[in-house]
Amino acid sequence: HENSRDIRENKQMDKIAHFIDAYYFSHLASKIYRWGGLSVPKSVLWGSITGSVWLLQIEMVDGFFKRWGFSQYDFIMNILGSSYSALQQLYPEQLKGIHFKVGYFPSEAYRNKLYSEVSRSIADDYEGYTFWLCFNPYDLIPKDCKRSFPGWLAPWGIAIGYGAQNIATDVFNGQREIYY
Q1: Are 23 and 132 in contact (CB under 8 A)?
Q2: Which of 83, 137, 148, 167 is the most buried (most CB within 10 A)?
Q3: Side-chain-side CA neighbours of residue 70 (13 Å)
Q4: CA-to-CA distance for 158 and 13, rounded, in angstroms?
Q5: Do 125 and 115 touch, CB atoms closer than 8 A?
Q6: CB 129 within 8 A of CB 102
Q7: pTM for this prediction
Q8: Rounded to the nearest 5°, which phi and psi values hold at 60?
């Protein structure tokens, strides 16, 4: 079954990429709408719609390729990424301490043209990416608990990274990598 195959490929790096792309596209679009004069609620709504539609059109194009097809999992991750962007903007005090970051350096597989897939762009060089979930515990604890939190720890955060190796020639194998 195609959806079963889709969720097992690339150690789910593609799914994380869809979430983060939707998050950043929606966030950027919201800021542009806000700069253009829309209120916060309207800019967040239209930003989320813009990010979701932008990634939906990419997914629809994929649907016409036999190799890829439309992915319901990609679509779900797009919606989740756009939704988190909206929630973070609407509830900044509660969610300001949780961020996503992306690191990229061309992988050895990419540099040596080892990818077996049709697409050989850096967007598909999943071995070269590291996706980071970053959070600051200080920003997440209630205000009354912050008094007992050591002040010198306030600017420090925690980051957990996720990557994959050895998936260029076989998208179903390879190893996950966790960084902290």
Answers
A1: no
A2: 167
A3: 9
A4: 21
A5: yes
A6: yes
A7: 0.88
A8: -65, -40
- In terms of C-beta density within 10 A (0-12 exposed, 13-18 middle, 19 or more buried), how is residue 129 classed? buried
Residue type for position 68? W
* Sheet-wide strand order for 98-104: 98-104, 129-135, 158-165, 175-179
Report d(CA 6, CA 14) in Å as an integer. Answer: 9
pLDDT tens for each residue of 98-107: 999 999 999 9
CA distance 78 to 81: 5
Q: What is the pLDDT of residues 32-55, one digit of tens each?
A: 999 999 999 999 999 999 999 999
Core vs surface per residue 133-161: b (16+ CB within 10 A) or e:
eebbebbeeeeeeeeeeeeeeeeeeeeeb
Give the C-alpha separation, 174 to 166, whole Å.
4
Query: Which residue, chain included where needed, has tokens 């597989």?
Result: 109
Tokens 């966030």: give the residue.
27
User: Which token pair is 71?
Assistant: 């992915």
Amino acid 18 reads: H
Mean pLDDT, all residues of the chain: 88
β-pair partners for 130: 103
